[in-house]
Amino acid sequence: MKDAATAVLVAEDFEELTVVTCDKRNEDGEVSWYLIKALLTERKEAIFQTVSGPKIDIQTESGVREFSEFWAPIRASSFFSGRPVPVRDDSWVGRSIRGVQVMLWADKQSTKVQAVWPIERIEERDEHAKKAAPPLNPISRETGKAAVFEISLLDRGQSNVQLWDETREKLVQAGEEVFKIISSPLDS
Fold first, then answer.
1. Alpha carbon of 138 to those of 24, 60, 65, 113: distances in Å?
2. Which has the higher per-residue pLDDT, 28 or 148?
3. Is 93's pLDDT higher than 50?
4. Per the count of CB atoms within 10 A, which of 47, 48, 141, 152 is most buried?
5. What domains, with CATH codes, occur in the chain?
6. DSSP of 113-182
7. pTM (2 d.p.)
């Protein structure tokens, strides 16, 4: 896949984390990623359904894209560096390790750090949550397909422009700490 322009993954079903990761890669990457769900009918006919793929971006002016000013310094020179974040998707940035996504979140009124595991790895999430508390005091929860721990940081977010530098610093510090905890091996 060295010079591929398109990547396709076909399966019976996809984890929520896989769909989120695919969507994020389509925003940030040069390769068009597709998740295709394959269903078999009673008559043994295959039906294929697109679960995720590149979004068609219709713009009135060619090549004009707005990028988030909030995330720009973080994406330019931090542990969470990467491609600029489009304004339309500027609630979070993330980084993955061994199938776990660490995400920095900043909406208009709050900031938090989340770590997301596939639901079948809930015990691993619990062990890492123990290592994080205190001082981070994560709150654990589950969705249908993911085991999450979340650390609330500030009761302010992107709407407080005058405090962006401090907000970004706290987000990156907490995100790096979570990443370090998840990177370290669990005691057997």
1. 24, 43, 36, 9
2. 148
3. yes
4. 152
5. 6-52 (no CATH), 72-183 (3.30.1460)
6. EEEEEEGGGHHHHHHHHHHHTTTT--EEEE-SSEEEEEEEEES--TT-GGGHHHHHHHHHHHHHHHHHHH
7. 0.63
